[in-house]
User: Fold these one by one.
Assistant:
Number 1:
Amino acid sequence: MSANRAALERLNRLRREEAVAELLKCCGSQKWTASMVDARPFQSEQHVFDSAEQIFKGLAQRDWLEAFRHHPKIGGQKAAVEVSADAQRWSEQEQARSADAGAQVRAGLERANAQYESRFGYFFIVCASGKSAEEMLAILKSRMANQPEKELEAAAGEQAKITQLRLKRMLDL
């Protein structure tokens, strides 16, 4: 059995509370997590990804906002809520390229994050994997022009990308 098939089988066999804890590492929405647990057993990795996407699209705005709080601010260290060690490590890996940013870019991110949060009521979220701090700052600034409804959809789209990336990590893909 391949490593990823073994990870899929493990996910299918976990007790409910264990599966919730495992899936919360991928997306901090309680509703998404419960729905994913209920969707088991998964027949394939693609079934996991398709289920995750379909369930995420059906979430309410409050569920998206709940998921956002499970991430640190771009350039930050800790999420607004307590997260697992795996989720913390994954966030650090996803934002790894921002660690090389100079003081000016870090200060710019801090200022722009504060402006974004003041404008939209939640902090900026982007799938940071592979992006430099400069790229993330440019994306943040460009999204500041969005209308609130459009921006929430953009942020939710980024959360969905992060969720898929983390599911792949969880399944060792």
Number 2:
Amino acid sequence: MKKKLKQKKCRACKDLFQPQNGFHVACTPKCAIALAKIKAEKTKDKEFRQRKEALKSRGDWIKELQVVFNKYIRLRDKDLPCISCQNITNDDNLGKGSRWDAGHYLSRGARANLRFNEDNTNKQCVRCNLEMSGNVGEYRINLIKKIGVERVEKLETDYSEARWTIDQLKALKELYKLRIKNLESE
């Protein structure tokens, strides 16, 4: 004797129906066709995203990673003052944007190899970072207080080559996304 199956909810119209076997997911042929169209569209979108991702250059990956890395730095240092001027600006009631940057002690242009170095990048107010060109003198003094003179001198003498592969950039992006998720859940 065949066991009667429990009623299921149709994936298309959400009505309850009696399935003929365990593989039925739609109540009518019309709903099954609608589900097939949705699945085909999702597959088409996924293929498009994959093709688009395959066309990204190394520079595109660097830009994407920079956005994620900067967000991580701002979250990591959210309770700290500006690394240069030591001011704490209140971000409440900001309409758009932020008063905080992820400021680099040694600039990305001069030292591309330190672009994603966490010791080299700290929360910095927009005024110090942009209007005062990084306020480097004060940045160095406070960076020494934060991480110690040995680590600052290590940064200053690091002239290694900045050559990340696309796979390394992808992995770093995922790492910092995960770190952001962890910081946001705290």
